[in-house]
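Convert to structure. Protein one:
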Amino acid sequence: MAKGYWIAHVNVRDAERYNYVATAKPAFEKFGARFLARGGDHRTLEGRDRARNVVIEFPSLQAALACYNSPEYQAAKAIRQSVAEADMVVVEGFDA
C-alpha cells in the first residue's frame, strides 16, 4: 500500500500563538504521522515562497485524510488558520 503525505507551505503571522504541533500531536500519533521535513533551510525554485515547508508521512493516503478530518486535529487546524497562511495538499506516494 502506498503511503500518504501532507505537504504544506506556511507563513506564520503570530509565532507566540502558533502552538500548532503540540496541539496536533495526539492526532499525529493516532494516525502514524512521521515528519520528514519541518521548516529548515530551503530554496524556492519556482512559484510562491513560504517561510516554512513541511512534509509529513502517513502509512497510507487514507490515514493522511483521516488525520486531517479527525476531531483530534480540528483544534490544531483552527490555531493554524487563525495565525498562519498555508497552502496544503495530501498526496498519495508512489508505490514501486
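Protein two, convert as well:
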Amino acid sequence: MPGMSDFRRPPPVLDMTPEGEFREPPKPGGLDAFLARLGGVAVLIAAMAGGLILAALAIFFIGLLLPAMLGAAAVAAVALWWRRRRLRRMGIEPGAIRIVVRR
C-alpha cells in the first residue's frame, strides 16, 4: 500500500500548553488570506442578490395588487354614483358622502 503513508513528509509540530491550548495562533498563508477575502466578497454578492430578489418580489406583488385595487375603487365609485343618482330621481338631494367603518 504505497499511498497510505508518506515517509518523506515530517510530522506537524504542535506547540501547545499543558492545558491543551496553542501557544500562538498559526499564521495564515497567502492562499488562506486570499480565500478568506474571496469568501467575504462572495457573501456580500449573495446578500445583494437576495436583496434584489426581495425587491423584485415586492414590485411583482404590488403589480398584482394594483389592478385589483383600481378595480375595487371603480366598483365603489360606480356604486356611490348610482345611489346618488337614485336619490336625485326620488327628489332627495344627497348630502356629503359619509363612509362608515365597522369593526
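The longest helix spans residues 30-89. The chain has a mean pLDDT of 86.
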